[in-house]
Amino acid sequence: MMVITMIRPGMLLQGRYRVSCEIGGGGFGKVFEVDDGGTPKVLKVLSLERFHNPTIKQKAIALFQREAELLSRLKHSGIPHIEPDGYFTWSDGHGEPLHCLVMEKIPGSNLQQWLQARENQPLTTEQACEWLIQLIEILNELHQHQYLHRDIKLSNIMLRPDGQLVLIDFGAVREVTTTYLEKQQSQQTGTVLVSPGFTPPEQAEGHAVPQSDFFALGRTFVYLLTGKSPLDFPKNSETGELIWRDQATQISPQLVNLIDSLIAPFPGQRPQNCQEILNYLKGNQQNSPLSQDWTQTLPGTGFLVSYLARKSLLKNTLTLQFKSEEKLVDKPKATQDKLYKKRSLQFWLAGCLVMMSGGIKLWTSALEIALNLNDWGFAQYEQKSFELAKIYYQLALIFNSRMPEPNYNLGLLYEDNNNFSQARAAYKIAMDKGYDRAYNNLARLYILDKQYTTAVTLLHEGLPFAYDNKAKYAMLKNLGWAYLEVGNYQEAQNSLQKAIHLNSDRAAAYCLQAKVLEKQHNKQESLSAWKNCLKYAKSGTTEEKQWENEAVKKVGKI
After folding, report:
1. Which H or E run includes 461?
2. CA-CA distance, 351 to 302, in Å (whole number)?
3. Rounded to whole angstroms, how far apart are CA atoms 201 and 235?
4. pLDDT at 397
5. Is 85 labeled as catalytic in the residue annotation?
6. Is the residue at 2 inside a domain?
7. Catalytic residue from among 36, 85, 92, 151
8. 63-87 burial code (b ≥16 CB/10 A, e <16)
9. Which one, 79, 87, 239, 382, has least CB within 10 Å?
10. The dihedral sign for the CA sequence 167, 173, 179, 185
């Protein structure tokens, strides 16, 4: 009977690493947390007892040692650090020695866990681009050292608390040596490592190339941008292309095109190196699609350059332009298209002329332009000029894509027009940018859609970001509402009482409190709450009007 060497919590390895607990397993072995003089680290242990074939066992050891050698050489914030002596073998004297690797413990969660915690809510274009840049820069470091990762997927990407992504699990890494390339040319297959949905066809056949990592990365972002596994999407039977674009309508066409190029069926159809992708994402090349397409998103964008030279004329000029375009709706479709193209070209050329004539550089005042455009949009929104307001908000985002207010205001606009799916998408983007009120508005839409648990989770997540008591009141009120709907009356009462404590002159929390007290059969206090609901009634949202009408009936009965 074979004796198996075991590692258990409490053991001291190498006179240095105290084993704390087992934190994972699978693949080739087990993973433990260890204490290294007060610093928590990760210990990976290769389990050889599962390998009965000596050749396969040696291959597993070689892969493990390759991971150790690579991580000890690479110095990048997106790659786990390992000290030169981090790899060692250990035995208790009774069984076969265990191969061990101690490395930096990355705080945070992997992207699989992160996405599940968000209930598979997709990424925004901005967040996706930021993450893509980080990961391509990590891959660039890897590829420059002639290594392929070969196992990129959600669970192998960690998100640090500071927002830095870290690529982990280099057990499948392969060095691109001359021998390896010769084997590729002679059609000899290498080690086959497959993660369904993420592994490209050529790698599944044992012929991984640098573009194989791009495929896996692209499939990872299909998951992040849709909230669905790549395995859930059909393929084009003729081309082999993944049919996923219709599930990512909130994402910019430029980003979708990039992802499609990364996941092209054949390596030659994909970008050929990391720098090519970075140029696209950062718009560094003159002919980069990202540097071209943004001006085509909205007609007349180029004209806004003249703001820097003639600031006082911009608002009136834009308003006249857009209002004049509103009059085109009565004209035939062909005429509309012709005039729109003509005006767009005229405005773009006008902007270019201002820039060439020595105007101040556009981006020095981009934030100021965005703020003004957002304000003008809200003014139009209050006047019920929704189409014009929408244009102003979209223009504001072109000049400062990080501003959450235009996205939030677009959400209000869509909601007023009963476009709830678009409203949710806009609120999600504003929420991802840290805008406190977006959490509340999105949660309210979930409550109206009877998704109460989602609303509760969202409101608890948003409360720490509440900028002022007004925002906090709204969140607590809606939290009480959601708890009421799921029958958790004690939590509902707690939330509503906190809201009333913040603002005792608003009706909504009293109205909901009255409903909760009725459910708890507390008629006396319920009546008092209904009276306050009526006392402070100002009829805001549709549901508040309903509650106030209910208060009239309740108080009138007594």
Report:
1. helix 452-462
2. 5
3. 13
4. 87
5. no
6. no
7. 151
8. bbebbbbbbbebeeebbbbbeeebb
9. 382
10. negative
Given a contact cutoff of 8 angstroms between Cβ atoms, the answer to whether 273 and 142 are in contact is no
Q: Are residues 275 and 251 in the same domain?
A: yes
Which tokens in the block code for residue 527?
Answer: 């009546």
Domain shared by 282 and 363, yes or no: no
Task: Name the residue with higher pLDDT: 291 or 108.
Answer: 108
Q: Check: CB of residue 484 under 8 Å from CB of residue 452.
A: no
**Residue 129, token pair as written in the block:** 């681009």
Under a CB-based contact definition with an 8 Å cutoff, are residues 418 and 433 in contact?
no
Task: Taking each helix axis as running N to C, give the angle between helix 436-448 and helix 452-462, from 0 to 180 degrees, rounded to the nearest 10.
Answer: 170
Q: Specify if 470 maps to a domain.
A: yes
| CATH code of residue 520 | 1.25.40.10
Which amino acid, residue 514? A
For residue 240, give Cα distances in angstroms to 68, 221, 234, 254.
Answer: 37, 18, 9, 21
Among residues 344, 356, 345, 359, the alpha carbon closest in space to that of 306 is found at: 359
| Among candidate residues 427, 446, 465, the one where a domain is terminated | 427
Question: Within 13 A of 499's CA, how many CA atoms are on the CB side?
Answer: 27
The Cα 505–Cα 535 span in angstroms is: 9
The CA distance from 360 to 368, in Å, is 14
- What is the domain extent for residue 327? 297-427
Residue at a domain's end among 295, 314, 343: 295
**440 and 375 belong to one structural domain:** no
- The pLDDT tens digits for 403-436 are 889 999 999 999 988 888 899 999 999 888 878 8
CA distance 535 to 547: 12
Residue 288: is its pLDDT beyond 60?
Answer: no
Tokens of 541: 């949202």
The residues near 39 (Cβ < 8 Å, ≥ 6 apart) are none
Instruction: Check whether residue 62 and residue 186 sit in a common domain.
Output: no
CA atoms within 13 A on the CB side of 273: 8
CA separation for the pair 479, 492 (Å, rounded)? 7
Q: How many residues does the chain have?
A: 558
Tokens linked to 483: 């708890």
Closest CA to 38 of 110, 105, 108: 105
Number of domains in the chain: 4
Closest by Cα among 298, 230, 291, 297 to 259: 230
The predicted structure's pLDDT at residue 539: 67
3-class secondary structure per residue, 150-161: CCCCHHHEEECC
Report the pLDDT value the prediction gives residue 403, as an integer from 0 to 100: 84
pLDDT, greater one: 149 or 175: 149
The answer to whether residue 528 sits within a structural domain is: yes
- Are 140 and 267 in the same domain? yes
- Please indicate, yes or no, whether the overall pTM of this predicted structure exceeds 0.85: no
User: Could you tell me the CATH number of the domain that includes residue 70?
Assistant: 3.30.200.20
- Do the beta carbons of residue 407 and residue 431 sit within 8 Å? no
Same domain assignment for residues 135 and 261: yes
CB neighbours of 458 closer than 8 A, spacing ≥ 6? Answer: 439, 442, 443, 446
Residues 165 and 35 in one domain: no
Helix axes 469-486, 489-502, angle to 10 degrees: 160
CA distance 425 to 121: 10
